[in-house]
Amino acid sequence: MTAQMGEVLLYNGKKYHMTSLPFSDYLDTRKDIILFQYHTANYRGYFGKWEVRDNKLYLIDLDANVAGTKGVELDYFFPGQSEVFAEWFSGEVELELGEILEYVHAGFGSVFEKEIHLFFENGILISESEVDNREKYQKPIKPLKLWWLQIVEKFKRKKNSILF
To answer: How far apart are CA 48 and CA 65, in angstroms?
Structure first.
């Protein structure tokens, strides 16, 4: 599976990419809708834009590839609404923050410097936490380089070393 493009979430005045799919929970209740992938980086067949406002999760824009259409927007799922309070969603939303530390060419497996985890119950934000991945994903010293450093240290300890 190809790495998937995240949806967008506006939170505390900043734009983040999400590795969570709250709209999928809504789609689980709509068996009458069949979505088709846009491309290999979007198997789910839709792309949403979200916002947390007043501790509530809102779907504010949506593009979807619904069978039998040339593409649909938010109004197709929620007629007459320009945004929707995501009361159907209870769970965790993970946001990517910082540089990528490890790229994984599958799903949302890549690791970023930090993650923000937002926990929702019926669309209402109940808690938040932050994870710092930088220490856990430091690049290890290559074995050859480690071997060379050990040799250098050995010669440094000798007073009459030819090299130093």
So the answer is: 12
